[in-house]
Write a structure and sequence with these properties.
Structural class: alpha+beta
Helix content: 25-40%
Radius of gyration: 16 Å
Strand order of the largest sheet: 2-1-3
Distance between the termini: 28 Å
Number of helices: 2
Strand content: 15-25%
């Protein structure tokens, strides 16, 4: 496995990730870092939650989410866990 450099297209943060092929030292790709991804996706999901007649609570409840039928619940809880790990 090789390492691939990644640069956030929003904030410029750089990190490495495992890649199935070898990359040269100056090769990189772009993406959103977890923090920027959350900032971008949160308002989109909250709009969808309101449109579906649910609470627009994505990212607000942390591990205490009681919206068991929400299709974004697992994703929200996972983002919460990742945020705790990064702290």
């Amino acid at each position: 496995m090789g390492k691939l450099r990644v640069k956030c297209i929003r904030c410029g943060k750089e990190w490495e990730k495992e890649a199935p092929v070898s990359w040269k030292a100056d090769d990189f790709t772009s993406s959103l870092c977890p923090s920027c991804f959350r900032e971008v996706i949160t308002p989109i999901i909250r709009r969808k939650q309101r449109k579906e007649g649910n609470f627009d609570c994505f990212g607000k409840a942390g591990a205490d989410c009681d919206q068991l039928q929400c299709k974004y619940r697992r994703w929200c809880l996972r983002l919460h866990e990742q945020q705790l790990e990064a702290s």
